[in-house]
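User: Quick sanity check before I run a bigger batch. Here is a single chain. Can you write out its predicted 3D structure?
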Amino acid sequence: MRVAGVNIPEQKRIDRALAYIYGIGPNNVIDVLKKADIDASRRLKDLSEEEIVRIQKVLDTIKTEGDLRADVVSNIKRLKEIGAYRGVRHARNLPSRGQRTRSNARTKRGKRVTIGAIRKEVAEKMGLNK
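Assistant: Done. Predicted structure follows.
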């Protein structure tokens, strides 16, 4: 099944399968299934066409995938433009929610780069000692 531009695995339970859509998480799935009047424990392959259409109608009311990603990008761009602290942190590719960076934040900052001392001979060749 393809919903909101995403292929959803048919062998999984419907409550787990809908979480494959960006913007639909465990809490949203419960609301979607209640509005569509479908039991969460059923498998996607067992749903009828009419039930799938009901799910798609409910998902059309929620901002998902491309629209949501565009909103997130525009929010970050706005923070950068107004010079907010969070925007500066995004621009420098550092954590923006107060995490420490002295010892952690490796996934955000990237691989470690060791900076060592330069020997006098090498520094003279490079023209650094003047």
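The chain has two domains: 2-61, 66-130.

User: Great, the batch can go ahead then.
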